[in-house]
């Protein structure tokens, strides 16, 4: 009986999970505009658009490079995004695929985003691989994107607030 009750409590949560499809366009390194709403990629955090990182003695625009890769992955392509929730800016938080490519995983593997294990351990292994290869942000010194936002609140653009997709 307990098993049945547990199952019944679990089913409503599963039935509310929503898959969103549509063309994407990168807003920054971890956010995508889709028709009528914005999507924040779940489980990762990419450098901010104005953030720079260091490689040796050189600064490089790691935030712009993250956005460029996300643009190459999603701009004009049909995405399939599995909604995980929403954030404080009313964006859909989702894991998205462009074809068979997990967009967030591609960013983490390239060293252009960090995994957020406090939300999901899905990208921890990809981050470990990027670190061991010394690619992207792992090739030098960088400030975690969350720390950069806290230290530079005026350099972070305001988020567009769009409506969230409605369940059918």
TrEMBL record:
Signal peptide: 1-17
Residues of the TNase-like domain: 25-140
GO MF terms held by the record: endonuclease activity
Organism domain of life: Bacteria
KW Hydrolase (keyword) present: yes
Keywords per UniProt: Endonuclease, Hydrolase, Nuclease, Signal
Presence of keyword Hydrolase: yes
Pfam families noted in UniProt: SNase
UniProt name for this protein: Endonuclease YncB, thermonuclease family
Natural source organism: Qipengyuania nanhaisediminis
